[in-house]
């Protein structure tokens, strides 16, 4: 959850009310946010373990009380003091929710943005813009304006990879504007970070500066987004003045100051939907300070091809209001309340979902339908459940009566999970160390390195790196990589590892809630023994131990081959297992003639023998692929058959 820091005195000034800390904490709970911490600049610096300040530096810090408020991750309208105070005042009934006005498109040159589609499509293909006229800034408003952009960049914009916001003093540049992508050496300007010294950079040298200059370390994380691109995105005015190099930095010439009156906002993006949400949020929060409050001047965005022909055009910002519906019955049943339909309409005004109205019922069973008006600030309202959640907030969580559930159920573990937990305890008692390895692996580790042919597996369409190409179909690579990274451990007495976890297998017939999902989870138990000797007998003993713990009896011919070693214990009726030598050509993972498969006969298999696992001495080639220096035996069993 994002945390928004606001000064208590400034927040109360916006609210027009004062509260004790306890009262404000209760108000936050009622509104659906959380007052996480009450602190101050001086207290934060005192508690910091990384930054140590002198007494003189500490004495210069403010003791103004700061509220740190945790807000829901999808409530972008609460990421600044303007949004929080406005929403709380609407919730308290002090004001009505504002109505946003999009002015007619102006004929001025500044109301046009031209996008060179052939070049920008390779880096950041989209841009949306808006103009705020006659804005009045002071120090607090300016700081909040910057902090809102930072919050959006961290959250919805995904560290500027999806959307980057640029804000400019419209009076310092000349329209029409152009959004292009050019070679780094062709982009030359004075960046905002070097305003005082007036130093000019080209695109490539600026990236190098931001990667190495400690004074610009806050921009270093964004450099990799475009550094290796042959073209850098750039926003220019009609005089070829660089206004911004998204998603890195704005130009110095168009910087915003306290004297700025007209603000030009541009959002470049790889996702047009998110760009519109970001732009709507910034406009909705700070159009409050325009001479004509809550009004915005739109900008026409024209995409042109190499022949300068307009191939696409739209006007931004959208600032759409839309209608969403939920039945009164659904809302009441989901929250656990019984509110009259007319009262529910009134509650919508407290949560900025008004004006709301009742629509005729489509069926007597469902009852009347509640239709709400979703403002441009509430992109989080996507479903009837979201409407119900907000009405629950407006009704008041503390006003919901506690009721004894009408159904009586007893929770419990799934049988497969219960079996897994019991086996973990027993295998650990046998001297094995439990590990938990990654569910994703490379195709090489999952197949080729084990001597298996590459077969179907659930694969990632855009893996972060080669180590995360597929979802594992076997647990063995994870254990072998654990051995590989623990060479410094003692192997003198044998090094035992095990894991009980899921693998994912492709399955076009597996169905969940009448939907074929194309894959299924399978619970496996995998163990390895590595030491001066192969330890085949150790792994073989673990197989027998697991089957005994699962109350599965060995078949008569298997008992006969064991001499006097077998001691009869209680077993489930109809459950038997056997061990059969694995043929040389079946699996190349194991050393020829030193591997076996485990066969199970049970009611769950329909009385037929099925192979539920294999064990044996790993082939030297497999050990070499994982850089393991000691002979190793391994076991892998399917547990689903035994739960």
Question: Could you list some keywords that capture this structure?
Answer:
single chain, 643 residues, alpha+beta, 11-stranded mixed beta sheet, 8-stranded mixed beta sheet, 18 helices, 31 strands, 26% helix
Give structural notes:
It is a single chain. The protein is of the alpha+beta class. Helices cover 26% and strands 26% of the residues. It has 18 helices and 31 strands. Strands 4, 5, 6, 7, 8, 11, 12, 13, 14, 15 and 16 form an eleven-stranded mixed beta sheet that branches. Strands 20-23-26-31-30-29-28-27 form an eight-stranded mixed beta sheet, with helices on both faces. A hairpin with an 8-residue loop joins strand 28 and strand 29. Helix 1 (8-15) crosses helix 5 and helix 10 (328-335) crosses helix 12 (384-395). The chain is globular. The protein starts with a strand and ends in a 5-residue tail after the last strand. The mean pLDDT is 91.
**Category by helix and strand content:** alpha+beta
Total number of helices: 18
Stretches where pLDDT falls below 50 for ≥5 residues?
none
**What proportion of the residues is helical, as a percent range?**
25-40%
Which strand-content bin applies to the residues?
Answer: 25-35%
Number of strands: 31
Largest sheet: 11 strands, mixed
Rg for CA atoms: 33 Å
Instruction: Label the overall shape.
Output: globular
Termini gap = 39 Å
Round the mean pLDDT to the nearest integer and report it. Answer: 91
């Amino acid at each position: 959850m994002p945390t928004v820091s606001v000064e208590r005195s400034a927040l109360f000034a916006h609210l027009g009310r004062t509260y004790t800390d306890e009262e404000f904490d209760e108000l936050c709970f009622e509104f659906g946010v959380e007052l996480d911490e009450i602190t101050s600049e001086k207290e934060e610096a005192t508690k910091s373990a990384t930054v140590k300040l002198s007494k003189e530096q500490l004495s210069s810090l403010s003791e103004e009380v700061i509220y740190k408020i945790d807000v829901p991750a999808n409530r972008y309208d609460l990421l600044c003091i303007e949004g929080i105070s406005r929403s709380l005042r609407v919730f308290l009934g002090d004001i009505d929710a504002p109505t946003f006005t999009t002015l007619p498109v102006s004929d001025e040159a500044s109301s046009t943005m031209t996008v060179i589609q052939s070049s920008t499509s390779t880096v950041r293909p989209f841009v949306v813009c808006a103009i705020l006229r006659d804005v009045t800034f002071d120090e607090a408003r300016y700081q909040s304006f910057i902090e809102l952009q930072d919050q959006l960049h961290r959250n919805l914009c995904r560290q500027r990879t999806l959307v980057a916001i640029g804000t400019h003093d419209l009076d310092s540049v000349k329209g029409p504007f152009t959004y292009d992508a050019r070679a780094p050496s062709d982009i030359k300007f004075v960046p905002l970070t070097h305003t005082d010294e007036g130093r000019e950079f080209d695109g490539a040298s600026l990236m190098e500066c931001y990667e190495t200059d400690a004074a610009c370390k806050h921009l270093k994380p964004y450099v990799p987004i475009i550094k290796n691109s042959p073209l850098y995105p750039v926003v220019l005015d009609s005089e070829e003045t660089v206004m911004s190099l998204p998603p890195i930095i704005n130009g110095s010439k168009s910087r915003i100051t306290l004297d700025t009156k007209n603000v030009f906002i541009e959002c470049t993006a790889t996702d047009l939907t998110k760009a519109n949400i970001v732009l709507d949020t910034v406009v909705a929060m700070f159009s409050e300070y325009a001479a004509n409050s809550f009004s915005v001047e739109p900008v026409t965005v024209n995409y042109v091809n190499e022949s300068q022909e307009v191939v696409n055009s739209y006007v931004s910002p959208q600032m759409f209001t839309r209608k969403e519906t939920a039945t009164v019955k659904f809302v009441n049943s989901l929250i656990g309340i019984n509110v009259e339909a007319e009262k529910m309409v009134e509650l919508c005004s407290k949560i900025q979902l008004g004006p709301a109205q009742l629509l005729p019922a489509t069926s007597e069973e469902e009852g009347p339908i509640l239709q709400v008006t979703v403002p441009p600030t509430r992109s989080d309202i996507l479903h009837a459940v979201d409407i119900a959640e907000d009405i629950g907030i407006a009704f008041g969580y503390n006003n919901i009566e506690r009721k004894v559930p009408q159904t009586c159920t007893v929770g419990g573990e799934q049988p497969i999970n219960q079996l897994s937990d019991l086996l973990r305890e027993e295998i650990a008692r046998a001297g094995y160390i439990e590990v938990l390895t990654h569910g994703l692996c490379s195709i090489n580790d999952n197949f080729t390195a084990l001597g298996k042919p590459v077969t179907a597996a659930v694969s990632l369409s855009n893996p972060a790196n080669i180590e995360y190409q597929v979802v594992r179909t076997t647990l063995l690579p994870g254990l072998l990589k654990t051995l590989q990274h623990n060479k410094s451990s003692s192997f003198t007495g044998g090094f035992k590892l095990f894991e009980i976890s899921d693998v994912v297998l492709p399955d076009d017939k597996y169905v969940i809630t009448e939907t074929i999902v194309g894959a299924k989870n399978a619970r496996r138990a995998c163990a390895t023994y590595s030491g001066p000797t192969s330890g085949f007998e150790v792994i073989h003993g673990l197989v027998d131990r697991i089957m005994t713990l699962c109350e599965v009896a060995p078949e008569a011919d298997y008992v006969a081959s064991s001499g006097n070693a077998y001691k009869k214990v209680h077993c489930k009726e109809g459950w038997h297992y056997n061990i059969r030598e694995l043929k040389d050509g079946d699996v190349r993972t194991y050393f020829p003639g030193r591997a076996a498969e485990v066969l199970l006969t049970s009611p769950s298999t329909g009385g037929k023998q099925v192979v539920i696992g294999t064990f044996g001495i790993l082939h030297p080639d497999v050990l070499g692929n994982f850089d393991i220096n000691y002979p190793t035996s391994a076991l892998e069993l399917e547990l689903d058959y035994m739960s």
